[in-house]
Amino acid sequence: MVKILIFAIMAVGWNIMSGYGGMFSFGHAAFFGIGAYSVAYLLSAHGLNPWFGMLFGAMLAAIVGTVFAFLCLRYKLEGSYFALATFAFAQMFFLLTENLEFLNRTEGINIPILQDDSWLMMQFHPTSYNYYWIGLFLLVAAVAVSIWFVHSRPGRFTTAIRDDEVAAESLGIAVLRHRLITVALSCAITAIAGGFYTQYYMFVGPNQGFGMQVSVDAIVPAVIGGVGTIWGPLIGAVVVGGLSETIADLVRNPPAGLEFLQGLSGLDVAIYAILLIIIVVFLPKGIYGTIRERLRK
Amino acid sequence: MRKKRLSIAAAAALLLGLTACGDNGGSSDEIAIGAVHPLSGPLAGVGGMMNDGAELAVDDINAAGGIKSIHGAKLTLMDGDSEGSAAVGQTEARRLVSDGAVALIGTYQSDVTENVAAMAERSDVPLVIDVAIDDKILSHGYKYVFRIQPNASTMGASGAEVLSQIGKATGQDVTKVSYMHIEGAFGESTYQAFRKEAEKQGIQVVRNVSYPATNFSDATTAVTQALSGDPDVLVVSGYYPDNLLIAEAVKAINPNIKAVFGIASGAYDDTSFPSDGGAAANGVLSANYHYSATSKRAQDIRKRFQEKYGRPMETAAMLSYQAVEVIAAGLEKSGSNDPVALQNAIANIRIDDTLLEFKGPIEFDDKGENKNATVIVTQVQKGRIEQVFPEEFATSDLIFPARDH
């Protein structure tokens, strides 16, 4: 359940840059990982509380993202080339953490376990609903920020740039600046999801932080729900999360007649793939995007 | 438009809220033990076998009347599939705990265990590690985590000790060894502990070669490098596929060494190694924790395992069986299914009739390590794994030097 919230926050973050900003990122794991590792490192090595760690991670991710995007945009890396660059960028962080001693290389970082529940250290009994409330709070905040952004002046400029860069520029919109603002915001939100991940799982390793799977996890809910819409990523996360739970249950205790499914892992991934293909072919605007379009007609 | 948008948002929020209310089950006359093993992915074979071992233990205990101090309460086993990944393993452990498991066993891999251990500690639910070697898991001062098998540094040190004893017992010179180990915490910590103890025993490590855990498809170069120091014995630590490759490379190069000696090797005491390795397996020695081939009870369990599941019961599965027994004994002692009382009982437990070849009963020290966990030496002889050293555990005579030219 909390996993769905983490997916959702990530997807909301991804959606700002890729949906509204039109800069397709295939490497949001980089920013997720920065958030996750910031919390883990600051907490385990310096005892700093994870709330601060999250904030720090968000800022760091925003800075790193901005510098990266600046270099890409400055040298006119656009469209699929930009997407490829983001992918390589995440992979670079993956390899870097695997080889950095202070981040524990391939072993990852375990955060210290406390005996008692603590709001300050964001640590509770693993079955506690507090994780759920914190996740929900962060998600609501992320959605609120994205609503605010979309309706703000820079947000409107950003969508204008996405739709027609030349026209926007000729109207005097500072293209680069607005793109960078979008990237920074997107990266910061994704990093928050990463920080929360570390707290919930009490652990982060290179694979959990910077793995390719993480980038995919950020994209899939948004694409299924509807790219470039506020509610799309949320609906997508609920669909994907619910689906993976249902399938996990199905594989664990298959009903009569489906015993051959017992212990079959990877079924959920296969079904996502099919779902994703169906959505991209038949509902290119995603579930929410399509519904909205129908309702408008 | 605006209204519709709101209603969709409300529906989504409702859906989120509904799925949050999971069920919390577990009836009182059944006590659930959660097992986290890799049931899918490349390690599915061994993970499934370990689960079978745990299941057999649960069946045996229930058949013998369940937990007598809790009105004959029956045990049940709940499976979790780690898929070989630390994050999935932890999610599964979390699910098992919230579904009412009073104790956990697992998990075969050190990194997964590290995560599940943190979960167990935070949940106040005991975890009895069946297989996981890394010292680090129990270095955090966890109270709820126990390990039956020896850790990496114990294995490295006692490996050096038995190697030196073998040299003395057979009157052979073992003064120079080369060490090959897999990269990562397991190989590195085993090697470090070995070297320290070896120096005390007057054994010099002339070459130390580490090889990568992935994409290791030909061992010839690494073995040649290790042999360049002209060692008496080649010592090896790693998992099944890589250690098999090393044995084959040694066979092909045919150097003038007295033995290939595995320490915590995933291959050299495995029942399928003699047939997989063929001539390359012959005479290979292995210092590892091992199921007790001299115990009648262990023999009986292995026989019934083979009948029920149609494959031999390796040491890993015996450890899973043993882990369930430790938890059952803890439940018997505490007389309640409260995990906190269970922790206390397991911490002070003593199990005399062990299923592994240990130097004494299973008792945990204050870190949660089994005080009497130790290694024995096995050797491949005539296509079979025989226990050869120390003599009290021997099922066959040690052949050393173990290679002929």
TrEMBL record, chain B:
Residues 1-22 form the signal peptide. It comes from the Bacteria. It holds the Pfam family Peripla_BP_6. Keywords: Amino-acid transport, Signal, Transport. InterPro entries: BCAA_transport, Leu-bd, Leu_Ile_Val-bd, Peripla_BP_I. Residues 30-383 form the Leucine-binding protein domain. Gene3D superfamilies: 3.40.50.2300. Belongs to the leucine-binding protein family. This is ABC transporter substrate-binding protein.
